[in-house]
Amino acid sequence: MTAEIIDGKKLAETIKQEIKTAIEARLQADLPIPGLATVLVGNDPASRTYVANKIKTTAALGIRSYSYELEEDCPQEKLLDLIHELNENPDVQGILVQLPLPDHLSEDEVLHAISPKKDVDGIHPYNAGLLTRKYSEPLFYPCTPSGVIRMIQSVCPDISGMKAAVIGRSSIVGMPTAMMLSRCNATPTICHSYTKNLDEICRESDIIVAAAGSPGLIRGNWIKPGAIIIDVGINHIPDESKPRGYRLVGDVEFEEAVKYAGAISPVPGGVGPMTIAMLMANTLKAIEYR
Ligand code: NAP
Question: What are the tens digits of pLDDT across the range 26-83?
């Protein structure tokens, strides 16, 4: 068996095209266009690249973009002042603070400060709390988990009753992905670094979402034949044959996994592009809360 490849890039292009069309229609109808503010603190090269990609996509879709860069040693108060200002700015519907922040800053305090109505990343505790409540809807679903669900549904629209292993329990990926799988009536098992018999849990799972940040953690022969595998992990492996001196791999041993899985997402070209597309979708949605 060779797995179907879930092409996140292609799926993301379709979603972005829909957003672009919706924005053009708003322009035609003389309706307000959403604006996204990105806040980058410090000089982390990966964060800089992520923010640059988001700004580029924003412009391509016709969303207004407001970019803020603060120095590495920026005091907490200065960052909070900027967020309060953006909360009040009627031209800004979405606020994205690129994580991780430098160590001296409190990520928690910063995330709390963003208005839940402008929390297009979907990670404010208010929205995260609503996600866990059975009969409530968050104002925004978090971007990476939303992308993961869309990718799963692209190959299997109804996952009710299916067993899912989520490897990772972070607030931005693992935990909310498990919540969203449960909302789709799948039965998730949340795994982390203390989980025993990870291989057995994987072998019993119809869906595996790998979000540990550990290259090759999920072995091909851990995969139940026909399972759906979404690889969220992004790991930089030194590789002198590449122009940048490294290559990107996920958390799944891809070459082996394709022999067992029914469908699998690659790295790169899988969850990454979907995360940006879902951010754009949330920014468009944010106009409803204006
Ligand atoms: P994180 O905050 O470091 O969380 C990693 C999680 O994985 C933790 O819960 C950790 O367990 C668990 N874990 C680590 N090693 C494990 C192991 N050997 N066995 C089982 N569980 C293990 O990372 P994150 O922010 O969730 O990101 C996860 C990965 O996804 C990273 O590679 C990141 O770069 C990538 N990512 C990709 C996108 C995208 O758009 N494609 C977006 C976000 C993140 P403990 O809780 O016990 O420590």
Answer: 999 999 999 999 999 999 998 999 999 999 999 999 999 999 999 999 999 999 999 9
Q: 149: closest CA among 57, 54, 265?
A: 265
Q: Which pair of tokens denotes residue 152?
A: 């799963």
Residue 1 scores a pLDDT above 90: no
3-state helix, strand, coil in the chain (%, to 5): 40, 15, 40
- Give distance in angstroms: CA of 172 to centre of ligand 1: 9
pLDDT digits (tens, 9 = 90+) for 110-150: 999 999 999 999 999 999 999 999 999 999 999 999 999 99
Measured CA distances, 91 to 25, 27, 98, 181, 184 (Å): 18, 15, 20, 34, 34
Q: Is the CB of residue 216 below 6 angstroms from any atom belonging to ligand 1?
A: no
Expressed in angstroms and rounded, the spacing between residue 88 Cα and the centre of ligand 1 is: 34
* Residue with token string 């800053």: 105
List residues with catalytic annotation.
Answer: 54, 98, 121
Paired residues of 173 in beta bridges: none
Please check whether residue 197 is in contact with residue 189, taking contact to mean a CB–CB distance below 8 angstroms: no
Structure token pair of residue 236: 């930089």
